[in-house]
């Protein structure tokens, strides 16, 4: 009989452990991501301990009274099959039990398991990769674009305009998460703003940790036209050589052909699942998710 698992809230001292097992699992964690997850819901991340050894983790983050998300569900391989994952799962589910909608990203082989807990498949999520030298596409800005739009970076971005654009395209408003995400010093953020101060798209590129070496993850990546999306993508990728990763929701019907045409390769697939209602939001302008770990 194994000793009982002790499940404790994530502490700063645990961040390196969770980051490293996420990296080994191929999650490609972004630099600084865990701190943002913790700021979104300080009670929603846990580490499982067997005696004095950390062996797994999970996140069950409440965005608000209507929506939560499960992610970062990992147990070190040699400790699997002993019920520790189920104990972590029940801890996170209890934290989210009163919410009318809970989402997660499922590997194909886990869909049947999550279905037993009331989750149903909504759509496929595709992870795209592009390996380059830091120069992406030929120049695609016209004089009309330059006259009509500004491509604003980092601290100069009008946060209220970006929040208004984001909340119409996400499962739930997320101003606290978005503020932390877009103001993090790692990487670069660019927003597309017209002369009236209205946002037409935005994106963030940040360094991430691959199984071997480093790369870049882009997300969120949103634009209300494919042309603006390509310009935004070019401006994010330029001067960032190496492997680029983007996770695209299947509910954006145009994304697959667009990324194929741009030379991206499909690397893997997961499936968005929900327990409760399906969020009634269009994803046609969403080309890249902020992170699979928090939806």
TrEMBL record:
Gene3D superfamilies, per database record: 3.40.630.30, 3.40.630.90
* Domain of life, source organism: Bacteria
Q: Which organism is it from?
A: Prochlorococcus marinus XMU1408
- What single Pfam family name could you report for this chain, choosing any that match? Acetyltransf_1
Signal peptide range? none
Per the record's keyword annotation, is Lipid biosynthesis included, yes or no? no
User: Sorted alphabetically, which keywords does the UniProt record give?
Assistant: Transferase
Any one Gene Ontology molecular-function term assigned to this protein's record: acyltransferase activity, transferring groups other than amino-acyl groups
- What is this protein identified as? GNAT family N-acetyltransferase
Which segments constitute the N-acetyltransferase domain? Answer: 5-138
Lineage summary = Bacteria, Bacillati, Cyanobacteriota, Cyanophyceae, Synechococcales
